[in-house]
């Protein structure tokens, strides 16, 4: 995968996570207090993971070398850690 394609893919994933976070926030606002707390904890984890990916994307954008091999593995781990909380609330 070319560096630019990989950057675009990461940006798209970040945008998807933003939408997922917004949906979870809407659900949290309507949930009972004990359920809301779980939503907010999951939202916090999603935001943390998103921040890490954004930082790696920024590093990649600033880098001249193609680092997609190492970032592919990182992205897969990030996606897996985000999907688990999202699946619980679907």
From TrEMBL:
Coiled coil: 7-63
Keywords for the protein's UniProt record, in alphabetical order: Coiled coil
Protein name (Swiss-Prot/TrEMBL): DUF465 domain-containing protein
Taxonomic source organism: Sneathiella sedimenti
Taxonomic path: Bacteria, Pseudomonadati, Pseudomonadota, Alphaproteobacteria, Sneathiellales
């Amino acid at each position: 995968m070319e560096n630019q394609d990989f950057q675009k893919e990461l940006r798209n994933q970040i945008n998807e996570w933003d939408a997922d976070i917004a949906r979870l926030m809407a659900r949290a606002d309507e949930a009972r207090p004990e359920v809301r707390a779980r939503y907010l904890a999951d939202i916090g984890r999603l935001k943390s993971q998103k921040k890490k990916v954004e930082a790696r994307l920024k590093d990649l954008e600033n880098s001249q070398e193609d680092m997609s091999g190492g970032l592919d593995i990182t992205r897969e781990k990030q996606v897996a850690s985000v999907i688990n909380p999202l699946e619980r609330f679907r």
